[in-house]
Amino acid sequence: MPGVIDEHSNEHLTPSLEHVLDLDIEVADPIEIGETGNGERRIIQITDGTVSGRIDGHVLPGGADYQLYRTERPTELVAKYAFETDSGSRVYVENRGIRYASPEDSRRLRDGEEVDPEDVYFRSVPEFETADPELDWLTQSVFVATGVRQPYGVKLAVYRVA
Questions:
Q1: What is the pLDDT of residues 110-156, one digit of tens each?
Q2: Do residues 158 and 17 make contact, with C-beta atoms less than 8 angstroms apart?
Q3: Residues 146, 123: contact at Cβ < 8 Å?
Q4: Is the entire prediction scored with pTM above 0.85?
Q5: Is residue 69 within 8 Å of residue 75, measured between CB atoms?
Q6: Torsion of the alpha carbons at 26, 31, 36 and 40, rounded to the nearest 10
Q7: 12 phi and psi, to 5 degrees?
Q8: Rounded to an integer, what is the distance from CA 88 to the centroid of its chain?
Q9: What rounded mean pLDDT belongs to the chain?
Q10: Hey, which residues does 99 pair with through a beta bridge?
Q11: Among 36, 81, 85, 108, which residue is least crowded by beta carbons within 10 Å?
C-alpha cells in the first residue's frame, strides 16, 4: 500500500554519511595538569589550521583540546575552538570524542610520536554554532568525525549523518 511503512523494513532507519569537511589542526605543546584520579588532565592549545571541503577557511588561534589521557581506557577529548571561512564568517566548534589505542601506542601518542592510524580508534561528534544563515546547515544535523593524531596536531574528516 502506498504511504504505509513496512514495520519490518529498516530502510528508513539506516543512516548514511556525507563527507563535508576536512580540518587540519595545529597545536602547541600540552599543558600538563597531572594525574587527577580519573586520568592525566592535559590542555592542548589550538594555534592554527585549515578547513576544506564544503567550507574553506582557517582555524583561529585561541581554542584548546581538554584531554583526560588514559592508557588502559579511552582518552576523553573535548576540543573547543573556532574557524573563519574564506568569506569571513565564523563558526564555533565543540567536538567531543574518544581515542583508544594499546597502552604502548597510547603513550607514544601522548608523547607526540607517530603511530599507525590503523592502530588507533579516534572518533568524535562535533557540534557547530554560527551567526551566518548560509551556514545554518551546520546546526541542523548530527556530525561524526574520524581523526588521526600527528606530531604537530590532528587531522579530522567530518561527516554529516543523513
A1: 887 888 989 999 999 999 999 999 999 999 999 999 999 887 899 99
A2: no
A3: yes
A4: yes
A5: yes
A6: 50
A7: -85, -5
A8: 22
A9: 92
A10: 75, 122
A11: 36
